[in-house]
Design goal:
The chain has helices at residues 4-32, 53-67, 76-95, 100-117, 136-156, 163-181, 185-207, 216-237, 250-257, 259-274, 287-293, 298-318, 324-349, 365-382, 387-399; strands spanning 35-36, 48-49. With 402 residues, it is mainly alpha-helical.
């Protein structure tokens, strides 16, 4: 418990700096007229200052550095270098815009820094499919993939007020609590520094009126990078099951803690690829857009998603002993059903069109038309009754609620 003061200091310092820095950033953004303007895929209804990630980054940087001054943390300097790289990439994107391919290149460099310089990577699959320790090549590929997925997941879910910030606070609190009780003070400090930095921003993002601000890519890329480091370390520290408070099925538990950002990103990427679009092309296919379509406000949609994600975490920890396959089956089944619920009610109330390019409820339009035309051609060739085409289309519409 002698490390507790460092943890408390890190949180309080990050929160205080963030609460002070956000209004300063807002004044600068106003003077430079750097606003996030509403567009066809934005949930914003009026221009709002962006670059709130500057306050998050600075708060996290100072608080974690001071908090860790009395605690040795191998690779910390390289973690900061990786986070700083993504900060400047996000800053440039918020001000000038950069292509998705340049973003991916920067993310690969970030992954290289984390893997080879900070020496943070996956080394074990925790018995998944009977596999324990893994070789260097597979380790590097897997770690780089997870880092890139998590960075983009947090970047993509930054669509409505408080969502990316709120889910980051939830995830960092859960991971940080485990780090603390299991005796890994360094990563507990890293986690609570992130919580404090985001909490100050969250206040202005959700409840700000004169001082409202968005985090932008400057913030979301930073959040994704730090969260990737935390997730990898959580898995690595749970390899030895003889340690106190060890969590079995750590990979599945990690997925459960981050169920919304990961599942929503995977689902949206699949929809875009089926539409022959770039997976990084913006649209309104995210779950939070579905909730807005159902009449939720930004605040109510955010708190609904956070509440569901929170409730999801509880059984994931309770069932961590059933094995990775069993736990992932539970997560995919329950998560899939939950993701279908908003689409079901939108369909029932006929709130959007089937082939709306911005909110694809059913099978993506191009794929749906392809299946329909292909089926029709086969029917004409084989002289099958047209009624079966109707039945097939109806079945596909009812089946695909994602």
């Amino acid at each position: 418990m002698q490390e507790l003061p460092y943890i408390i200091l890190s949180f309080v310092l990050a929160l205080a700096i963030s609460l002070y820095a956000v209004p300063v950033v807002i004044r600068i953004v106003h003077s430079l007229k750097l606003f996030d303007k509403p567009n066809e895929r934005s949930a914003a209804v009026c221009p709002v200052p962006t670059l709130g990630g500057i306050a998050i980054f600075l708060s996290f940087l100072f608080a974690s550095s001071i908090g860790l001054s009395g605690n040795e943390m191998p690779g910390f300097i390289y973690i900061i270098i990786a986070v700083t790289l993504m900060f400047f990439v996000g800053l440039k994107d918020d001000i000038l815009d950069i292509s998705p391919y340049k973003k991916i290149t920067a993310q690969l460099i970030t992954a290289f820094i984390i893997i080879f310089m900070a020496k943070i990577r996956f080394t074990n699959l925790h018995g998944f499919l009977g596999i324990g320790d893994i070789g260097m090549v597979f380790s590097v590929l897997l770690t780089a993939f997870v880092i890139i997925v998590l960075i983009n997941a947090f970047n993509l879910m930054d669509g409505i007020d408080g969502l990316a910030a709120g889910l980051s606070i939830l995830a960092a609190t859960v991971f940080g609590s485990w780090f603390f009780i299991s005796g890994h003070t360094d990563y507990a400090i890293l986690s609570v520094s992130l919580v404090g930095a985001i909490a100050g921003f969250f206040y202005y993002n959700v409840y700000g009126k004169a001082n409202k601000i968005f985090m932008g890519d400057t913030g979301s890329l930073v959040l994704g990078t730090i969260m990737a480091v935390i997730v990898i370390k959580f898995n690595e520290l749970n390899i030895d099951q003889s340690q106190p408070f060890a969590i079995a099925s750590a990979p599945a538990v990690s997925f459960g803690i981050l169920i919304y950002p990961l599942a929503d990103t995977i689902r949206v990427f699949i929809i875009r690829l089926l539409q022959s679009k770039s997976p990084f092309e913006a649209d309104k296919n995210h779950l939070h857009h579905r909730l807005l379509t159902l009449g939720f406000s930004h605040k109510s949609a955010t708190y609904t998603i956070i509440a569901i994600n929170t409730l999801f975490i509880l059984p994931v920890f309770a069932l961590h002993h059933i094995g990775i396959v069993g736990l992932m089956a539970f997560i995919v089944t329950v998560g899939g059903i939950l993701f279908m619920v908003p689409a079901y009610f939108i369909q029932k109330r006929h709130l959007i069109e089937k082939n709306d390019p911005q909110q694809q409820l059913l099978i993506p339009g191009s794929t749906y038309e392809f299946l329909k035309n292909r089926r029709s051609a086969l029917q004409m060739a084989q002289k099958r009754p047209a009624s079966k085409t109707v039945k097939l289309q109806t079945f596909l519409q009812k089946l695909n609620l994602w």
